[in-house]
Design brief:
The protein is of the alpha+beta class. The chain has a single domain, classed as tRNA-splicing ligase RtcB, CATH 3.90.1860.10. The chain has 15 helices and 19 strands. It has helices at residues 31-37, 42-49, 108-111, 115-125, 141-150, 152-157, 185-191, 216-221, 239-259, 277-312, 392-398, 412-418, 421-430, 440-445, 454-464, and strands at residues 4-7, 10-13, 25-28, 55-66, 73-80, 85-86, 98-107, 204-213, 229-236, 272-273, 323-328, 330-339, 342-351, 353-355, 374-377, 385-389, 401-403, 434-437, 468-480. The strands form four sheets. Strands 7, 8, 9, 11, 15, 16, 18 and 19 form an eight-stranded mixed β-sheet that branches. It has a seven-stranded mixed β-sheet with strand order 1-2-3-4-5-13-12, with helices on both faces. A hairpin with a 2-residue loop joins strand 12 and strand 13 (342-351). Helix 5 (141-150) crosses helix 10 and helix 7 (185-191) packs antiparallel against helix 9 (239-259).
């Protein structure tokens, strides 16, 4: 496959590489990251995505790109809202998988002696693992509908958080396009008992320390004031409900393609016109599942505050446990972007990709209008995580998007053959990182060595201007599913 280097950290797969291509592929990566992407089907999937009707500008691969379902994870594509399509494969199964970061006024010296107690208590209070039920019973589908329509606001109104939390979340923690009536009964049944649960795989809850501050003014605006300051990061999504919504939609879209005479090179790219009944149903169901994801992280944050308050002997308010931001990274969002000098209404598919909106943007939270939207890029257990800030260049380069994490380069099956969970756990403990998981095999699957170098992913994002480095974090305590 022909791949041309067009600038530092920018590569393209040109039009004509495959006959179905409507736009080129644009890849943002270093040479080292490119080598890892070549080991799977990342570039093939990115090329296939160029076949989507009314796709604009590029099929984009971000620095953390790797093979996914249909689209590469770390993939972005924008389609015309009126004449284009929407594709579940461009969003993913874990709809609104996302990350939130909350701060404290504690220092490492306050927390280090109590890390084990904190991790054990958090592990007990935040249900973790495959199929685990939460502490909230939604009492039938009507209760699930309330979450699907209300998102994080539902959780706050139920007492799981503070009003101020809503001002520090993408879309204020609630997607207006949500339509609970488009979510199947089976999906709702799966969602009845999973609000407030972490799940498994790469989902985590981490106690972290500020390791380095790159942007003093930006950090200060987020309440991050010094190295050694204690932070908490939560990474989870819409659980079984979101997975079911995606599965249901793929079946509908597969049939819809025949109805609308849409031809794509991979059935995993199944899609329908966004304005069609099928497209609107998916948009409503996906947004509803997105709201479930916001509510899920909101309730887990509430219990995290309670645990810290109990063990540290102060209220969460006195500990300054305010939410810095919550970002989604598996979503299809209806947005307006400049396309060839004209303002267009588009659907931006972000599959393992994070919004990175600049200072002054209408959807950048009021508290961050002067610095840009916070962007959270997590590592995995033993590696760093980052907070970046949205940049104007991202709007032209990547539809206001950047990477969502380090990105896998080793499959879970290969990781299980390569790493032994107890060995990884002991190595991390020797480095001052306490890890607790439901099973040792989970630690093996998520070993730091199974992922790309998050420092390199962030360096590329920063150098291109699709997000600007603000703060580096490092973990001291980790809960895995």
């Amino acid at each position: 496959m022909q791949i041309n280097k067009v600038a530092e950290n920018i590569y393209e797969i040109p039009m004509g590489t495959e006959p179905f291509m409507r736009v080129p592929v644009r890849i943002y990566a270093s040479e080292g990251l490119m080598k890892k992407m070549r080991q799977d089907k990342t570039f093939t999937q990115a090329v296939n995505a160029t076949s989507l009707p009314s796709i604009f500008k590029f099929s984009i691969v971000l620095p953390d790109g790797h093979q996914g379902y249909g689209f590469p994870i770390g993939g972005v594509a924008a389609t015309d809202y009126e004449t284009g399509v929407i594709s579940p494969g461009g969003v993913g199964y874990d709809i609104n998988c996302g990350v939130r970061l909350l701060r404290t006024n504690l220092d490492e010296s306050d927390v280090r002696p109590k890390v084990r107690e904190l991790i054990d208590k958090l592990f007990n209070e935040v249900p973790t693992g495959v199929g685990r039920k939460g502490k909230i019973n939604l009492h039938g589908h009507r209760g699930v509908d309330d979450v699907l329509e209300g998102g994080a606001r539902w959780a706050v109104e139920k007492g799981y958080g503070w009003d101020a939390d809503l001002d520090h979340q993408e879309a204020n923690g609630r997607l207006d396009l949500a339509d609970a009536s488009k979510v199947s009964d089976q999906a709702k049944s799966r969602g009845r008992s999973q609000v407030g649960t972490l799940g498994s795989g790469n989902h985590f809850l981490e106690i972290q320390l500020v390791d380095q501050i790159f942007d003093e003014a930006g950090a200060k605006a987020m309440g991050i004031t010094r190295e050694g300051q204690v932070m908490i990061m939560i990474h989870s999504g819409s659980r079984g409900l979101g997975h079911q919504v995606c599965g249901d939609s793929i079946k509908i879209m597969t049939t819809a393609m025949r109805k609308y005479n849409i031809d794509v090179p991979d059935r995993e790219l199944c899609c329908a016109p966004t304005t069609s009944p099928e497209g609107q149903a998916y948009l409503g169901a996906m947004s509803a599942a997105g709201n479930y994801g916001f509510a899920n992280r909101q309730t887990m944050m509430h219990w995290t505050r309670e645990v810290f308050g109990n063990i540290m002997g102060q209220s969460p308010e006195d500990l300054d446990m305010h939410l810095i931001y919550d970002v989604a990274h598996n979503m299809g969002k209806v947005e307006e972007h400049d396309i060839d000098g004209k303002r267009k209404k588009v659907v931006v598919h972000r599959k393992g990709a994070t919004r990175a909106f600049p200072p002054g943007h209408s959807e950048t939270p009021t508290a961050y209008k002067s610095i840009g939207q916070p962007v959270i890029i997590p590592g995995t257990m033993g590696t760093a995580s980052y907070v970046l800030l949205g940049n104007e260049k991202a709007m032209s380069l990547s539809f206001g998007s950047t990477a969502h994490g380090a990105g896998r380069f080793m499959s879970r099956s290969r990781a299980k053959k390569t790493f032994f969970g107890k060995d990884v756990q002991e190595k991390l403990a020797s480095e001052g990182i306490l890890v607790r998981a439901t099973k040792g095999i989970v630690i093996a699957e998520e070993a730091p060595g199974a992922y790309k170098d998050v420092d390199e992913v962030v360096r590329v994002s920063d150098s291109l201007g699709i997000a600007t480095k603000a703060v580096r974090l490092r973990p001291i305590g980790v809960i895995k599913g």
